[in-house]
Request: fold
Amino acid sequence: MQILLAEDDDGVAAALVEVLYDHGHVTRRVRYGSEVMTYHRSSDLLLLDLGLPDIDGLDVLRAVRAVSDLSVVVLTARGDERSVVRGLRLGADDYLVKPVRLAELLARIETVTRRTAAKGVPAVRTVRAGDVEVDLDARRVRVGGAEVELTTKEFDILAVLAGRSGTAVSRERLLDEVWGDAHHAVSRSLDVHLTQLRAKLRRPELLTTIRGFGYRFGDLGN
Reply:
């Protein structure tokens, strides 16, 4: 299996590369988050440290998940509950806190890859509700067959909601996935973006506000 290892500590990286090689895995080690975006498409699994020198690992995870279903195992010293929850919510298949026993790491990798292979059918990446079509991969939205131009943040918000079509998404989770650690400073900005998004889509029933909780996409009765 081709494993991409994002780890800035040379000693940790060397030990991991060695043990992975001994168990039949070909590993490409990178130090920076930007390199993950260069090499992830040629990999079967990403081992991701969160404390990278250029980009926070959670932002790297968010960027990978926007374009790929690559298996991701977070391997980090960051063991606080908020980081663990955010990592899993952002799409990590597993989350391990250093120091980790190598036998456990290998078992987790095996479990994740087996689970991914068992899925068989690719995830749906185009969501439809009435005459609204959201292409999550191409980042395109059509309403009644006509393309609608959205800003980056407007699409990011819509993608989080459309990706869970029919399911209530909390305001906290929406802020967390779109803005990350900065979300406490931009809470009111979400309201502005949602207002603009509703206006552009011209389907007021498409985005339902759930008072005291959050929002739901796709309530069109179709």
Remarks:
- The chain has a mean pLDDT of 87.
- The chain has eight helices and twelve strands.
- The helical segments are 10-22, 33-39, 57-67, 81-89, 102-119, 152-162, 171-179, 187-201.
